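As a warm-up, study this chain.
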Amino acid sequence: MAMDAPAEVSTVPSSGSVRVREAANREKERFDRFVDTHSAGSVLQSWAWGELRRNQHWAAVRLIAEDRGGNIRGTASVLCRSLPAGGSVLYLPRGPVLDFRDPWVLDSMTDALRRLGDRWRAVLCKIDPYVTPPDASVRRALLLRGYTIGHRRGHFDGMQPRFNIIVPLKGGPEAVLARCHHKTRYNIRLAVKRGVTVERGGRGDLATFHQLLMVTCDRDGFRERTLPYFQQVWDSLSLDGRVELYLARYQGRVLAAAVLLVGGQKAVYAYGASANEQREVMASYALQWAMICRACERGCWSYDMTGIPKHLHEGLPGYGLYRFKRGFWPEVSEFTGEWDLPLQPRLYRLWNIVEPTYWGTQVFVRRAVRALHPSLHAAATEHEER
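Now compare it with the structure written out below.
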């Protein structure tokens, strides 16, 4: 189906004293202010992230839930994408942003999502709220309103990682450093002693970051992203100051680089890369520490080091990354995970059969092509990001 942009504002019937309507473009700052200051807010629910995904062939619809006094009680940045066989899916990365214990707001937003799904002929609406740790009352509230636990897939147990290392920034850099593992503190200081420097980069440095990322993906088996993808991230988020690039150098050579995303009170280590050589100078530790200090400088309350695998056993893929991250904070944060709101029950049952098979095949084919024909793999990756 055609993914034409919806009308700028459309009123959605409400439940109780809360109404949900589509946000107008002029309300961008008001929308973002609510997301940035809410405990369940995330940069992935910001207006700019929706614009990024619109440039990648999704549709983006923003919903605002208001009480009778006109106060915002909840928001949702809803992404919509057509399916090859017809219809579509709705997806709210780390959303919606609301108090899930408020029945009026949750009822109103769920009703709005159903109606939006009717408009787009959607098979399902997938939500992935920023609720950590998992809460039994939230679980009950979602089940009562027709949500079902979404299919878990991949090392990270979902489209967004379900298990993260989230470093609290209370007390500033000195307090954060004191809470780090003693070996992590040692490695941070060792990097400085050996002459590793960290600098902020610009859009022109994304090519250097991407070259290093390809080395990392080849070494660790992570999913690759194309350079145009990161350029789009930069172009969409840099105007609002939501994206920064950091490069760690040693003797003039970039040994580690990372993309930092900032949404209000939360900073996110979104994408990282490191070289295979000269790892003994601990450039990655210096890089992380520089970004933590920057997050403190920007007034963030937390630094999200993002996903770790759900299975944490030495020798398994990703265990080394987990060990590195836990040196900055030993506790693992678990999110409530993905929840599906089935909108067409028969097609949704079919979806749960076809979708896991499709992604399993994609992973198998991607690995095979990557091993045999790197140039074809790059082209396939670029097509997938669209």
